[in-house]
Amino acid sequence: MSETSARARAAIIPVTALQQNCTLLWCETTRRAVVFDPGGDVPNIRAAIDEAGVTVEQIWITHGHFDHVGGADELREALGVPIVGPHIADKFLLDHVVDSAATFGFSGMRNVTPDRWLTEGETLTLGELTFQILHCPGHSPGSVVFFNPQMRFAVVGDVLFNGSVGRTDLPGGSHAALLQSITEKLLPLGDDVGFICGHGPGSTFGDERRTNPFLAGAA
Fold it and tell me: Which residues pair with 131 in a beta bridge?
C-alpha cells in the first residue's frame, strides 16, 4: 500500500507474466474504490480488494491491450460493477483480446465490451475525488489518461514510463502521435504531477521531461 495523499490511497497488483500494474485506488474518506486495468490474475486482484477493505464501484481502463483488460470482464462479473473506458478508438483491440493474447501465449482472457466509452474532457468521480480524462493516442488509438488535479496525480497506462514511452509497433500505434500526446497534453499539466504507469515504477512529469531520452528537447 502506498499513500498518494491525505485523501487517497493506492495498491499496485502486478498481473500476468508481463507484470502489468493493475491499480486499486480509493478515496480515503468514503472507502470507495476503482480498479484500473485488471489485465489478469483476478483472484489476486480480489484478494487485494479484500485486504484493503474497500468497496469497488467501477473498473477503469486506460487502453485495450490484453495485458490491461484480459481480466476485466471476469472482474466485472464477480463484482457486479461497470467497466468504464477507454476511448472507442480501441474497440478493435477489445473485440480481439482472446486472439491477441493467444498470439503472445496467454490464455484464459476474455474480449471486453465496456459499459461506457470515454472522451477527451470528461470527468469521473470517486468518492470525493475527481479525475479528468485526456485522450492520448499513440501507444494505441484509444489510450486515455486519468488526471486528478487535487492530488497532482495521474494514471497513464502505457503512454509514458519511467525513462521510456509506450511501444508504437502494435496495430494502431504511432510514435509521432504518442510524443504529441505526451508533450501537448501531459507535460503541460506540471512538473510536480506524479504518475502510475502500466509497467515498472512511476515517476513525475518533471523528471521525465528532464531525463527521459525520448523527450529530449521537450518544453
Answer: 124
User: In which domain, by residue range, is 133 found?
Assistant: 2-215
What confidence category does residue 219 fall into, taking pLDDT thresholds of 50, 70 and 90? low
Measure the CA–CA gap between 158 and 21, rounded to whole angstroms: 10
Overall domain count for the chain: 1
Give the CATH number, domain containing residue 196.
3.60.15.10
The tens digit of pLDDT for each residue in 187-207 reads: 999 999 999 999 999 999 999
> How far is the C-alpha of 199 from the C-alpha of 17, rounded, in Å?
11
The sheet with strand 20-27 has its strands ordered as 2-3, 8-15, 20-27, 32-36, 55-60, 83-84
Contacts of residue 199, Cβ cutoff 8 Å, sequence gap at least 6: 18, 19, 20, 21, 158, 161
Model-level pTM greater than 0.90? Answer: yes
Grid coordinates belonging to 20: 502489468
